[in-house]
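Bench notes, bay 3.
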Amino acid sequence: MLFAPPVRSVPGAHIVTKGRCECGERPYTAVVKTLPSMTILAALCASPAVGCSKADAPDPAQAPPAPAPAAPAAPAAPATPATPATPATPTAPVAKVGAPAPSFALNDVDGKEVSLADFAGKNVVLEWFNPGCPFVVYAHEGGPLKDMAAATVAEDTVWLAINSGGPGKQGHGASANATAMSNWSMSHPVLMDPSGEVGRLYGARKTPQVFLIDASGVLRYAGALDNAPIGKVDGEDPYANHLQRAMAQLRGGDPIDPGEVPPYGCSVKYAS
């Protein structure tokens, strides 16, 4: 309980004191009636005569209802991870030994179109070419390709070099290839395949890598030029020029065996 502040009694007067009820900490107005023999009267919160005034005490029936607790927010749906872009799939090789060679048409370093179909009825050698590749440089400057193409063309075979290097890649560009042709006295054309479409069509992976097509248009050999990258034979095997052997078998009407040998050299510098 709390005590009202002491007051001086005046008979017949009503003294009003104010304070707060202990119960609930509400304001109250305590009305004390003085008596002749008393000067101080305790104000009790629980007293029916004095206590919390109705004017000051809130009426529970009239009190506004407590707001309903807010519903918990629904958990945010997890972000859907972005689907990674699917990388472009390179064209699967179409050329297969024993099957018709895929046809194509490309421009040479002078911008003239050359088509495989132009040479129907003739044997054709395709040489994947890159004038910046050390293996190609060796083969043309002091290796087997120094005069092999010229001798082959003089017989009964067409020789086409193809550069599938993309823009900005090693050995790309008509000017660089024309310079190499001049420096190496190449009489056969170099065809430009900057998109790499023809290279992928044939499954060209290295430079130099060669393909032999017979007069009926069937691919008969695909792979390494020989077994001596940069002029050095691996192991103790004797030197073997795989392309020369395949051409001799073709001319003699013999089966070409083997028809494929894994190529060596620089990777073809495709655009992507």
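Next record in the batch:
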Amino acid sequence: MKSISYIFLKTNRMKLSKNTKKLIKSSLAKKLFLILGVILILFFLFNDLLMNWYVEGGGISVVPNVAGMKYDEAVRMLDSLGFEPKKGDVRLDRDKPADIVISQNPSEGMTVKTGRRIYMVVSAGEITVTVPNIKGRTIRDAQFQLEREGLKLGSLDYQYSEEFPSGTIISQKTNPGVKVKRDISISCIVSQGVDDGSVQVPDVTGKQLSEAERILQSIGLIIGNITYIPSNDLLPNTVVDQYPRLGEKSLPNKKVDLIVIQSGEKKESFREN
């Protein structure tokens, strides 16, 4: 039985060997070998010749750092080094002025083919807002309108006016329609109304006691009674309230009572002037 099996396997192997030789000699096999040979030749040709031409003929360069430069200057530098500068995104940036390059791609120090495009993200500067017209408005309305635009009410000067009612804005030091950065303060001149000998009480809350006294004395008013209260949040001698309040009228040499933060953990105290 073993000899029969051995003869059978040997016969099959001979048949497979003959079939393989026939397949190799067939026209289809010759075509396949020819195609494979062409592919190998093209591969080595591209690898040895075309890549060398791409790198050596085109040239390679190290990408310079243009972040922080003005866009026009960055363009001139990249052009002079054989790169192709391109403006990418334009982005608002609180820390960088308008027209300054924020970032670049490819980044500094990368080795790339000369002529490569360099994309730059450029700053559009800070957010700007338009100053509203607050002329003729009350101080409270003016403050609300300015805050709605991202601005603040600045220092207030007072003067008499027959045209504007007492407590309204006569003029503003930054003209309406001007573009400014957010969070700046807009100073104004406020009407004291018709000159009847009285003065407009200024706002001294949030100021130190010595500064509040100076402001009041500058318009003919004096400090009246002072009530001291404790606080862990505010600095000692900070004025937190007053009477009469902002915008009210008072005759010269009249007293303005104040509530002031005292130092330490003392109980509420009172000083009468």
